[in-house]
Design brief:
This protein is mainly alpha-helical. The protein contains four helices and no strands. Helix 1 (3-23) packs parallel to helix 3 (53-74) and helix 2 (30-46) packs across helix 4. The longest helix is centred in the middle third of the chain and has 22 residues, at 53-74.
């Protein structure tokens, strides 16, 4: 990956987090968040990329953790029925993680493309 792409995506994460705190909501669709944090965990810790991409993945994972905290803190208000919010979130996270890991191994896609 190019350094420029890593910098601009990092800026996007920062702006999402900033806006989420400002609006008291989460700034990324939950499906995208579950897929992003799963991908970044897998390719930061389980099947790490070479530098500098592995550093960028780690930074993105950290920022995604902040967005997860925002989602768990503010997301229940926007979700109906509210009692299903946490189970739905964790089911989405587990499903995303399993799907990305399965696709990675099935297609031997060690770069996560």
């Amino acid at each position: 990956m190019e350094i420029g792409s890593g910098i601009f995506w990092t800026l996007v994460y920062i702006l999402i987090i900033r806006r989420g705190f400002y609006d008291k909501t989460y700034g990324m669709p939950i499906t995208a968040l579950c897929a992003n944090i799963s991908w970044e965990f897998i390719f930061s810790f389980m099947i790490p990329h070479d530098p500098p991409q592995n550093y960028v993945n780690g930074v993105w994972f950290f920022f995604d953790l902040i967005i997860v905290v925002q989602t768990l803190s503010f997301g229940k208000v926007a979700f109906e029925p509210t009692k299903l919010f946490y189970p739905a979130f964790f089911l989405g996270l587990i499903t995303s993680f399993g799907a990305i890991l399965a696709i990675t191994y099935e297609f031997k896609d060690w770069e996560g493309k």
